[in-house]
Write a structure and sequence with these properties.
about 700 residues; Rossmann fold; seven-stranded antiparallel sheet; about 15% helix; about 35% strand; EC 3.4.21.83; serine protease; Oligopeptidase B (PtrB); Pept_S9_AS; serine-type endopeptidase activity
């Protein structure tokens, strides 16, 4: 039986364009209607019937037919915006310096960098012996592999200790299933390409022939560590460690000193670390300290010591130090109420520390010789910073990245001794971009429970900020992930058309410290959604925008945010863009065979427990769709997405379409050859952005 009832009756289809002004197209299209096939998914004596459960039947013809029908409908409804999409694409691409090179970094005896070329979608990985004036060696050209694949993502890029071999892991579907390729850099000969089903991480031992890698289980969890010797088949490899607790996954790294390989066993709230001497690949991995529920610790080697960042009796994390043999724990940096210890980068004689204070990131440098600290001053009040490639253990300088909504990405080196700061590169934005033509500021909005919520803005200088402007409100608040105000030239295509770009730093992120995250998870998750609603209402109450001029966006768990907000406050906005939205919360979290489900219990709760079930059901977007009006909505999905399976946005779209009581557009666009992160090529990605930008501009009637 065909599960699709689809009619595409087009009475009038046309686009009238005068300069850059668009007149809405008069057209009549009949949207796809997914057949209902009721399935009882009740638990806890609570009746729940899922009419669209059948959409989980991946690769079956009815499912493919439905997804293609939705895509056809979406493209037909967006037909009149094709010129606008092309204009947006050309604008965004026109700002990119297509022939560009990153700042070279030292690793071993070579300087490594990537470069791009005109009209090519992917990076070219290169190196030069000695300084940057030597002859170039291309170590890996992603564009060559892209000739055979529509999607390509490189995860690990690891050069052997003798600098003769390169090991990389590649995903060619978007499903995040990686394959290992080992090549001879000089000759280009492929020595090994038979290892598959990897999670993407790998490391070399010092003998130049032994590699360690991690493998995925059926639930897409990195659960095994294997040892591989060059020339062997994968079936001959040796299992080193298997993690049987489904909450934990295996991370594989090397210490920056180069002395140890490191296993990080991590759940959402607990870690455990093992170390192995790189000179002894067949030796025993030594446990740093046993796991303790709720305790996270992260290990950094320096000399005769192991340094740890830990939340043991320290909500915002502290730094402690022990000798390699263990023993007494010295506190180096204490826990502080308003400062979160975020990251550390070790060097032979120095240490860089990244900390968050009242929302802003700051970097401090520590000198091991005289035990002095130095704070790096930044150029703006609202900015972001990150650690750049700092692989040289003996380096005399520290490299960091800097940017803001106004300032394109900059790479700085700061001398450890003189503290002289040198700009090595600033992203070049073509088309005459001038930062002084834009304004970035931070507002503080009251929340439903009396907190203060930061909203960072970007807008064109000269507009009346309180003149009821069209506004794009972006949000994400899960896992403690914090999205700071980095520059994006793509946003200019909205801001230059008079939109105010706003980013709400909601709970569930770590913007205001660890407690800000904890207050937006588990049974306090609805704070995340209420914060976002508070942000939208504040922008309207202040006259900056209004509900009829507001577009909202969120991806992945941010898509859950958008879905929840659409149910809780459907009149908040005119347009909603949920991308790869995690919306079928109850059904997904009840199915432990689905990738990442068990490991997510500590973030969302386990709905097999009645109290968590009740709370999750109260906000799950799929379970709370009602017969009421919703905003114009464009749902974005990837068919190969292992994190948020395609059926979540598909089922949600079907249910919304069946119940909603409005004439607003509801579109679903599924990229059939991509995963969680949209298209992989840099130009193909811009087409994806241009598509949803065009939807926003069209629905807000922005010329």
């Amino acid at each position: 039986m065909n599960k699709i009832e689809l009619g595409l009756s087009i009475f009038l289809l046309g686009t009238i364009i005068a300069g850059m002004k668009m007149t809405p197209t008069v057209q009549k299209l009949t949207p796809p209607q997914a057949q209902k096939n009721p399935k009882d998914v009740s638990v806890h004596h609570d009746t729940r019937i899922d009419d669209y459960y059948w959409l989980k039947e991946r690769d079956t013809q009815p499912v493919l037919d439905y997804l293609m029908a939705e895509n056809d409908y979406t493209f037909a409804k967006m037909k009149h915006t094709e010129l606008l999409q092309k204009t947006l694409y050309n604008e965004m691409r026109g700002r990119i310096k297509e022939d560009d090179t990153t700042v070279p970094y030292k690793f071993g005896n070579y300087m490594y960098y990537t470069r791009t070329e005109d009209d090519l979608q992917y990076d070219i990985y290169c190196r030069k012996l000695g300084n940057s004036s030597g002859d170039e060696e291309i170590t890996f050209n992603m564009n060559e592999m892209a000739k055979k694949h529509d999607y390509i993502d490189l995860s690990a890029y690891k050069v052997s200790p003798n600098e003769k071999l390169l090991a990389i892991t590649i995903d060619t579907s978007g499903a995040e299933l990686y394959k290992l390729i080992i090549k001879d850099i000089k000759t280009g000969e492929i020595l090994d390409d038979n290892l598959s089903n990897l999670d993407g991480s790998l490391e070399w031992a010092n003998d130049n022939k032994t590699l360690f890698y991690t493998v995925l289980d059926k639930a897409h969890r990195s659960f095994q560590l294997w040892r591989h010797e060059l020339g062997n088949e994968q079936s001959d490899d040796v299992l080193v460690l298997q993690e049987d607790d489904d909450r934990f996954s295996i991370g594989l790294h090397r210490t920056k000193s180069g002395k140890f390989l490191k296993i990080d066993l991590e759940s959402q709230i607990t870690t455990e670390v093992y170390l192995l001497d790189r000179n002894d690949p067949f030796g025993e991995w030594e446990l740093v300290q046993p796991r303790e529920q709720g305790v996270e610790y992260y290990v950094y080697h320096h000399g005769n010591y192991l340094y740890q960042i830990t939340n043991k009796d320290a909500i915002n994390f502290k730094m402690i130090r022990t000798t390699l043999k263990g023993g007494k724990k010295d506190e180096i940096i204490p826990n502080r109420d308003k400062t979160t210890l975020d990251d550390v980068s070790m060097f032979k004689n120095h240490m860089a520390v990244l900390e968050r204070i009242d929302g802003n990131l700051e970097i401090r440098l520590f000198n091991f010789e005289d035990e002095s600290w130095y704070n790096i001053e930044m150029n703006e009040d609202i900015y972001s910073v990150t650690f750049e490639e700092n692989y040289d253990w003996n380096s005399d300088f520290f490299r960091f990245g800097y940017g803001s909504f106004k300032t394109p990405y900059c790479v700085y080196d700061i001398d450890f001794k003189t503290h002289q700061k040198t700009l090595r590169k600033k992203e070049e934005i073509l088309g005459g971009y001038e930062s002084e033509n834009y304004v970035s500021e931070r507002l503080w909005a009251p929340t439903h429970d009396g907190k203060k919520l930061a909203i960072t803005l970007l807008y064109k200088k000269g507009i009346d900020l309180k003149g009821n402007n069209p506004c794009f409100l972006w949000g994400y608040g899960s896992y403690g992930a914090t999205y700071d105000p980095w520059f994006s030239s793509n946003i200019l295509s909205l801001v230059d058309r008079g939109m105010v770009y706003a980013r709400a730093h909601i709970r569930g992120s770590s913007f205001m410290g660890r407690k800000w995250y904890l207050d937006g998870k588990l049974k306090q998750k609805k704070n995340t959604f209420e914060d976002f609603i508070s942000a939208g209402r504040y922008l309207a109450n202040e006259g900056i925008t209004s509900s009829g001029k507001l577009a909202i966006y969120g991806g992945s768990a941010g898509g859950l945010l958008i879905g929840a907000v659409m149910n809780m406050s459907p009149g908040l906005c005119e347009v909603a863009i949920p991308s790869a939205p995690f919306v079928d919360v109850i059904n997904t979290m009840l199915d432990e065979s689905i990738p990442l489900t068990v490991s997510e219990f500590e973030e969302w709760g386990n709905p097999k427990e009645k109290d968590y079930y009740d709370y999750m059901k109260s906000y799950s977007p799929y379970d709370n769709v009602e017969a009421k009006a919703y905003p114009h909505t464009l749902v974005l999905a990837g068919y190969n997405d292992p994190r948020v399976p395609y059926w979540e946005p598909a089922k949600w779209t079907a249910k919304l379409r069946n119940l909603k009581k409005d004439e607003n557009d509801l579109l679903l666009k599924t990229i059939m050859g991509a995963g969680h992160f949209s298209s992989s090529g840099r130009f193909d990605y811009l087409k994806d952005v241009a598509f949803y930008y065009a939807f926003i501009l069209d629905k807000l009637e922005i010329n």
